[in-house]
Amino acid sequence: MPEKPEPGMTILVKTVTRLTAWLILLYGIYIVLHGHISPGGGFAGGVIIALSFIHLMLAYGKEVVFRKLSKEMVELMESTGALVFLAIALLGLTTGYFFGNFLPAGEPFNLFSAGTIPLSNIAISFKVWAGLFAVFLALVLLRIDNVGE
Amino acid sequence: MVELYFLLVFMIIGSVGALQAKDLLSSVVALGAVGLGLCLTFLILKAPDVAITQLVVEILSIIILIRATLRKDLPEVPTGGWMFPSAMGVGFAVILLLVALKCFPDLPVFGEPKLRVAQHYLDSGLQETGAANLVASVILDYRAYDTLGEATVLLTAVMGVLAVVRKVGRKKPDQPEEQTDA
User: Fold this and answer.
1) Higher pLDDT, residue A126 or A139
2) Which of A43, A135, B8, B139 has the fewest CB atoms within 10 Å, counting from its CB?
3) What is the pLDDT of residues A1-24, one digit of tens each?
4) pLDDT category, B104, cuts 50, 70, 90?
5) From the CA of B172, how many Å to the nearest CA of chain A?
6) Which of B56, B67, B158 sits opposite A44 (nearest CB)?
7) Which of B145, B151, B180 is the closest to A142 by Cβ?
8) B178 to A31: CB separation less than 8 angstroms, yes or no
9) B64 vs A136: CB contact, 8 Å cut-off?
10) Which one, of A94, A34, A117, lies nearest residue B141 by Cα?
11) How far apart are CA B134 and CA B150, in angstroms?
């Protein structure tokens, strides 16, 4: 038994988290990738992915999450998502107008269909999960404790 | 439509509970109940995309609120008298109801939008974009410019929050290293 108590919650919560966190992550990815076929999309899926990381962080403490995903990485992800979304918009100019759907529409109800819509979903999901995770980190962990002292 | 009225009453009770609860945790839980009622309302109105988004954002905001408020309970704000706030509340409610009485007859009938462009999306959205989910084809193809604006708002908000709570440049040199707990 370690002398110092481990950070995070009790072993029950940790075990359940170990079994469920990756399922939540997978579900978020599924929602993002099928955003053009079924309800959901980049925003909702991105929030679910962010929730899986928050779930891990609530149960295990921030050190475990930071080992998998540093804060700089989160900020990089968010900026990359925003820039990729803008790049898709600009590439649409090849069809003549902003956000033109420059890829073939394809067969409806297929995973690879709807031109740029799945790509936009993925870009938005990166933006949303990284952004909301960064907001969570900022608001919950980096509390401004010594303001006004 | 009768279940919508049940949900409406449930949400009103939840909102009053959130306002009147003694401690912050009960208030946050009541707020979560209101959000769940709103999610069910969206489902009954056949808007599953909005329902999913409402549910997950509600969970996220509730977690953030609980994490941010659980440790330090805000002290009870001393209030002076109940007469003036109650009178103001009733007065504003009456004004709102009078305005609503004037405005609501002008709203379009439920399910019959006045914008003709919606009918075009419904008719030819599948052929033009190839997306089976019409909501995705609207927000990421027809109206992608709005989505770009929304994404920019989120990016700016995150940048602002990270800039306000950052540690670099905030600490004084003689201040000891502080440890934030997870």
Assistant:
1) A126
2) B8
3) 455 556 777 888 888 888 998 899
4) confident
5) 11
6) B56
7) B180
8) no
9) yes
10) A117
11) 19
Say which residue the tokens 């921030």 belong to: A62
Do B135 and A39 make contact, defined as CB atoms within 8 angstroms?
Answer: yes
Over pLDDT 70: what percentage of chain B?
84
Q: Between chains, do B154 and A131 touch, taking CB under 8 Å as contact? A: yes
Which residue does chain B place closest to A105, by CA atoms? B130
DSSP secondary structure string, chain B?
A: -HHHHHHHHHHHHHHHHHHH-SSHHHHHHHHHHHHHHHHHHHHHTT-HHHHHHHHHHHHHHHHHHHHHHSSSPPPPPP---SHHHHHHHHHHHHHHHHHHHHHGGGSPPTT--S-THHHHHHHHHHHHH--SSHHHHIIIIITHHHHHHHHHHHHHHHHHHHHHS--TTTS-TTSPP-----
Q: Does the distance separating the beta carbons of A37 and B63 come in below 8 Å?
A: no
- In the stretch 19-38 of chain A, residues with CB closer than 8 A to chain B read 31, 35-38
Q: What is the pLDDT of residues A39-97, one digit of tens each?
A: 888 888 888 888 888 888 888 877 777 787 777 888 888 888 888 888 888 888 777 77
Whether A36 sits inside 8 A of B137 (CB atoms) is yes
Compute the nearest-CA separation of B118 from chain A (Å).
Answer: 18
